[in-house]
Write a structure and sequence with these properties.
homodimer; 34% strand; alpha+beta; globular
């Protein structure tokens, strides 16, 4: 098993949560249909002023699957309509 | 159950990973002894140049337990010796 964890902190100003959630659902529908998608867990900060209002912790079968899913014209189109900064990167679990 | 998720992205320059891990182990020993500590999962980025080289996803029994654990003189002492920027905040899981 070569599973990899995608962690993506999103900068969403207070008051923009509903807009974020609408965009998130669109993106979620796209990702769930991609090969190699395993799971996603979306977290919302208790503090509305936290640096990252939402953080996604997702799992993919491999880095290649995630890269393929984010290299399509359809994903680029989703990105263009997404008005929030984020910091996605792939991680491996090293201790628990 | 009122469990809460602590997510903490750490800025660690490439080449400083060993120093981070040494500090992390010290902090882990402290947290594991605190009331309300449930679990911790430390992730390392595949890309050494990722904005956040390490991200911890921990679980605490409640926000109050986490705040108590980070309000002690012993924790403040640990923080003073910790030379990396981080962005800790408490989260609730809102969708999976």
């Amino acid at each position: 098993m070569n599973h990899v964890t995608l962690i993506n902190p999103f900068e969403v100003p207070a008051g923009k949560e509903d807009e974020f959630m609408e965009r998130w659902k669109q993106a979620g529908e796209y990702f769930r249909q991609r090969e190699g998608f395993v799971s996603t867990r979306l977290h919302q900060s208790l503090d509305p002023e936290a640096a990252y209002r939402f953080i996604n912790v997702g799992v993919w079968e491999s880095p290649e699957h995630f890269r393929q899913a984010t290299s399509t014209p359809e994903f680029q189109e989703l990105l263009r309509g997404f008005p929030f900064s984020s910091h996605p990167a792939l991680y491996r679990l090293i201790s628990e």
